[in-house]
Amino acid sequence: MAAGSVNPFNLSDSEEETERRPDGADIERSPSDGPQGQSTNPFSPQADSEPAVLLLSSTRTSPSVEGISVSTAAAAAVGGNAETRLPVDVIAAQLLRDQYILTALEFHTELLEAGRELPRLRDYFSNPGNFERQSGTPPACKEQGLGPGGALTAQVQDRKRRKNGAVHVLDRAGSISTLDSLDFARYSDDGNRESDEKVAVLEFELRKAKETIQALRANLTQAAECDNPSQERKNFKSSPEIQEPIRSLEKRALNFLVNEYLLKNEYKLSAITFSDENDDQDFELWDDVGLNIPKPPDLVQLYRNCGNSMLSLRETVDVAVGVEAGELAGDCISQQPMQKTETIQQTEVVEELEYQISLLNNEKQTLAEQIKKLQSEIQELKKNVSAPLSVAMEMGQSRLDSAEDRASLDNGQYLDIRRVTGQEEGKDTSANPASAPAPATPTPHHSKLKSQPPYSKEPVQLDRPNRKLSPAFQQALLSFCRMSADSRLGSEVSRIADSEESVMLMLGRCLPHIVPNVLLAKREELIPLILCTACLHPEPKERDQLLHILFNLIKRPDDEQRQMILTGCVAFARHVGPTRVEAELLPQCWEQINHKYPERRLLVAEACGALAPYLPKEIRSSLVLSMLQQMLAEDKADLVREAVVKSLGIIMAYIDDPDKYSQGFEMMLLSLGDPSERVVNATHQVFIPAFAAWTTELGNLQSLLIPSLLSRIEKLLKQGEHGLDEHKLHMFLSALQSMIPPLFAVVLQNAPFTSRAKLQGEAPTIEVTRFPRPASPLQDVATIVGSREQLALLLQLYDHQLVHEGTTGWDSLLWVVNQLLPQLIEIVGRINVTSSTCVHEFSRFFWRLCRTFGKIFTNTKVKPQFQEILRLSEENVDASDGNGILTKATVPIYATGVLTCYNQDEDRKLLVGFLEDVMTTLSLSHAPLDSLKASFVELGANPAYHELLLTVLWYGVVHTSALVRCTAARMFELLVKGVNETLVAQRVVPALITLSSDPEISVRISTIPAFGTIMETVTQKELLERVKMQLASFLEDPQYQDQHSLHMEIIKTFGRVGPNAEPRFRDEFVLPHLHKLALANNVQTAENKRIDIATQLFEAYSALSCCFISEDLMVNHFLPGLRCLRADMEHFSPEHEVILSSMIKECELKVENKGVGEAQGSMSIAASLVGEDAKTKFLSKMGQLTTSGAMLANVFQRKK
């Protein structure tokens, strides 16, 4: 009962099992059975220790269906009535047997996602033979079962089926899809299934193709394993001293492990380099090494296990069984590791012996050189036998070699430790026995022929033992002390310096040999040593060499290393003074000014600025300035030019030659015109403040520097009447803006109250928002003045002076009021009001000027000058003359640059009143609205002014004049894009609805662009429906049927917002109404109106042609509308007719391709190629179109 309930699929298993096994035997493998082809270990402890019920476990890798039934039944019998769950493998077997392939595939996918891969399903779906051809019997049992010989792979079974000939073709043709043709989903050959089943089959075919590729790569892996001939391997095994060369597979595996180790331990740069050097290998996928190769543990684990992994198998066998390794049945298990261990040990012995041989060869060579040296010394001593005894006694312990010459160069300041050994003492004694002292008598240690300086140490007296050894024996005995004093390094080591100068000499000789052998990443550790030696070394040539080493210490020094080198250069300059800096450090900079590495040139540029305070003043203003100017003009690296500009700023603080002003001004303009934003920012942050400070000292800030920039701006405006160079205007104006803080500092420091500005008691406080945020500390007025306390005191006196005493005698401020402001206002009136960039730049300039000079100055000096020019008063509001200035950029710059400086209630009221007056005046005067639009655009960019602007527009909505109401309606179009949707719903839409019901038709028409912009930018459905209803009333109300201007405005709006509007609005509203308007235009009797409507329709359809249009809309509205439009253009504009014919042809081709059966309305490949060609030609022509009919005729003229 239990067994039957657990496995209901037993009925058909026996027949399939009998078909698979000719003898019909039901053989079950023990869990202890080894893999196929491997001999069984009789000593395995699992053979008898497992309970019998475990033999019936259903958790084996790939059990047969019979095995499942039997084991399940047995388990149920053992457990009695215990409730058991149905194994997933049983479900999989039944699905495959009943040919529920897609269900099994989905079941397999879900198991994979849950991390419970089922071998039965994996093997089934990885076998292409299950899907290309199938035998008459379901494959679930035949292919996945376990036979006596182990599990058969799916490929072997497929070959068996083909050999037996028991194959037939499925109800669909075999798929011939490849990876390149998988995009053609419509050609799926399973015609009896639904579209979702086709997708599933194609996804499976893609996965199958990928698995086929990986199987091919596995075959390549096996081929790579066999790349060495067998005879060659035998030679390597027979000769253990010859290392077998690395195979391709081993190399790829090691490369993968090394790359993995580098990434895990944060050696990212090394990993990147390693990956680049092995670009033929994919380090992200182990299967790239070999699909049939298991991934080994990482390098750390291999290293930890390398010492004990080989011994574990041998020890286990010996302890458990106690027999000899050769007597075991599975001898191959223990002998192979033992052979590998012996090979490794022999290799280590060979390497050790080779190392010993190399050491002995080196020692042999060293001893041979010593023998030659000793022989030459013996010859020298024999020549000097005739010298006086006293001299011989003094020289008894010394060697007469090249070290004696070095001692004379070192001024006799070295003690030679080689004389302590007594080795040479024995040689001297053997050469001249008469001069040999008694062994117990101490001999002088110092061997210098010159007299010792007064600060030198006394010779060291050795404590000799009371022994009687022959000198020859003593010499032979001491020869066993291995010392090398014959090389350069040995000579340096054998001498110890006993003074500061001798230490410097020794460092000067050794450092050039030390530096190349230090790691690049650690060479900055040598900087103190190099600098100290360069400072104190007595020889100029050696100092030059050391400084050359310093500047070439690191190939490409990073930021931190450059800072360290510069710190050392400054310390060197402080120590040695300007003369040596000029003679020793500057040449090193000059040599590297054109170095190929930008990091070196960057070091030079930074060094020029860092060393500026320590150079002679003539050099600062000549050589260094010329070097920096050359690098600024010629260097191609942005970072280098940025450092040059900063160093120029530092140089400007140390130049006191007035003749260099013009050169500095030219370099300022050159820096401002640099294409790199980094360089321009550095100019504003460092160079301009330093240059302005110098010109202030020269007295040229107000008289020369600022007027020069203003004259350049005026010249630029005169030249740019037909096309203003906005980049140059921005360059000059930004420089002028950076000079506002130093200009205000000049005004404060030259005020009548400056002499009274003495701090007594607690300093007054400065409001946080008193000044605009400076671009750098050098543009902070407190820094320019000296301190924040001093600035606070000056500001207090400044405000008091303006309120109570005026500007009498205040020349610096009078220059700002009487010369600078009028000239700036005149320039503002000459710029193009439609240039939003120019308006924004001047607005920012006036805003910073007014905020820097303060509210009192703005209210009493700036605003009156603007108001006098604008002349806004009640008397001339309705006049049509005298208001030409209102159409210029003066209006938006005054509104956004002056009236927005302070945000109190009176300031906001003044701004609202000004905008209302301008809107009223321009509307009643029928003047262009560009100045008002520019004001709204500039103010609308800041959300803080949205409420204020809506207040101004509401004033226009309720105005008595229809002209003012029209203007307000058009201004809503500009404001909608930046206002949040809450304000649009609460303030904008109600105002537009009010205007759309205005008695004047012109006012209603003026609301259409604003409604269109709402459809383009808003996402709330309620708002969109309200706008849609209003536009529908304009189109469908009979009172508007003959309103030509309304139809023109609607078509123009549809063409502008259609491509960006919500697709549903475009499909359900825009395209159908454009079709209706095109139909109505065909029967229009007024020729001029028909041409106007046709031109607007052409532009609207051109814009909408790039949008996605469904097949129904294309057939029912878009194509009919284009045909109606073409009928109009045939009479009035043949040039447009050519374009329309091309558009109609392309759309018809799309519809035909969709009719063929392509899903989602996408074109076929061939059609898309044709369509792309037509679209390219069409768009290239459309880019040249203008609204002028004459220009259109020229653009689309047929070739003759």
Biggest sheet record = 2 strands, antiparallel
- Give the % helix: 55-70%
Strand content: under 5%
End-to-end C-alpha gap: 96 Å
What value does the average pLDDT take?
A: 74
Shape: flat
Tally the beta strands.
4
**Alpha carbon gyration radius:** 48 Å
What order do the strands of the largest sheet run in, or round the barrel if closed?
Answer: 1-2
Spans with pLDDT under 50 lasting ≥5 residues? 1-83, 133-192, 229-241, 309-335, 386-457, 877-882, 1159-1170, 1184-1200
Number of helices: 56
Structural class: mainly alpha
GO biological process, one term: intracellular cholesterol transport
Protein name: LisH domain and HEAT repeat-containing protein KIAA1468
Biased composition (Basic and acidic residues): 18-31
HEAT repeats: 988-1026
Topology, please?
Elements: H1 2-6, H2 13-20, H3 46-49, H4 65-79, H5 88-97, H6 101-113, H7 119-125, H8 129-132, H9 139-144, E1 146-147, E2 150-151, H10 154-164, H11 195-225, H12 230-238, H13 248-264, H14 268-277, H15 299-305, H16 309-321, H17 331-383, H18 389-394, H19 402-409, E3 414-416, H20 423-431, H21 471-478, H22 488-493, E4 495-497, H23 500-514, H24 527-536, H25 540-551, H26 559-576, H27 578-591, H28 598-610, H29 617-634, H30 638-652, H31 661-672, H32 677-698, H33 701-719, H34 726-738, H35 740-749, H36 781-785, H37 788-805, H38 811-828, H39 836-853, H40 855-870, H41 890-898, H42 905-924, H43 930-940, H44 946-957, H45 962-976, H46 981-996, H47 1001-1006, H48 1008-1017, H49 1021-1036, H50 1044-1057, H51 1063-1082, H52 1087-1104, H53 1111-1132, H54 1134-1156, H55 1165-1182, H56 1189-1195
Antiparallel strand pairs: 1-2, 3-4
